[in-house]
Structure formats: C-alpha cells, structure tokens
Design a protein that fits this description.
- The structure is a single chain.
- The protein has about 160 residues and is mainly alpha-helical.
- It has helices at about 5-25, 25-35, 35-45, 50-60, 65-75, 100-135, 145-155, and strands spanning about 50, 80-85, 90-95.
- Strand 2 (about 80-85) and strand 3 form a beta hairpin.
- The protein is extended, with a radius of gyration of 24 Å.
- It starts with 5 loop residues before the first helix and ends with a helix.
C-alpha cells in the first residue's frame, strides 16, 4: 500500500462519506420529506380525502408537473393513497395513509417553529446582509488569507 498525503487521506474520507450519505436510507428519506412541496402537500391532505384540484389550490406555486411528481413520490413511499373514480371526467382523490398521518406532527412542529421564529430569522438575515454589504466580514473564501495576513503581522 502506497503512502498517502494528508490531503489524499482527507479526500478519500470525504469521498467515502459522500458515498455513505448517497446510499444511506435515512438520508434518502430525509431528502424526500424535507422537500418544501412534500410538506405543503402533507399539510394540504391533513384533513382527509382531497381531489387533485383541491390539493393544487392548497399548494400555491407548485406547477402541475411538480405537484404530480410529488404526489407520485409520496404514493410510492406509502405516505399517500391515490384513488381513481372512473367517471366523466375521471376523478382522482388523495389522502394520507396511516404512515403519512404519523409524519404530520413533525411537519406541524416545524411549521409552528417557522411561524414563531420568522421575525428573528428575518432580522438575522438583514443583519448578515448589511454586514456583508459593508464588507465588515471578509467573504468566506478570503478568511484564511486574512488570518494568515493577521498572523504574519502579529509576528513581525
């Protein structure tokens, strides 16, 4: 086995971690349920059966394609049931499964946290943006360069 530099070892560990995250079932599931459309659809279906058009109205901003993809993914994951009624026009209804309903308290808790902390987050963003605009803090890619300069100045 050849000797590796520390940079090579770090790169190897980073690649191994990326592969772990890519294949980790928990990571895959969290990716799915953290999607903004998923949380909005789950909330829209929290009251029971809804027609596609009702879900669409309850999730403003979602294109027909995105909403359809999201509903299909949720159905595949066992979080949503789709029921087709053959009529003219065809009627398609959706509702949460028991598994999907078990996710609602988490979604509602996150929504509640966002509602109660929105102003604080907005204030922090404004403060951060103002500091950046006034160059009070160097951009993250220049921090090491600035530190090296400051350390060099302190030594001289």
């Amino acid at each position: 086995m050849a000797t590796q530099t520390s940079a090579q070892r770090r790169r190897e560990r980073a690649l191994a971690y990326q592969e772990f995250v890519r294949t980790c079932p928990t990571s895959k599931l969290l990716d799915r349920i953290a999607d903004k459309w998923v949380t909005l659809v789950l909330d829209a279906l929290s009251d029971g059966w809804r027609r596609y058009a009702e879900v669409s109205r309850a999730v403003p901003g979602a294109s027909q394609k995105m909403l359809t993809q999201t509903l299909r993914q949720l159905e595949r994951d066992g979080l949503v049931i789709r029921q087709v009624t053959l009529s003219v026009p065809v009627r398609v209804d959706y509702r949460l499964t028991e598994l999907g309903a078990s996710l609602l308290p988490v979604v509602k808790a996150i929504k509640g946290w966002a509602d109660s902390h929105f102003e604080q987050v907005e204030a922090a963003r404004a403060s951060y943006d103002t500091a950046r605009a006034e160059n009070l803090e160097p951009p993250s890619d220049r921090r090491a360069e600035v530190r090296a300069h400051l350390v060099g100045s302190a030594v001289s």
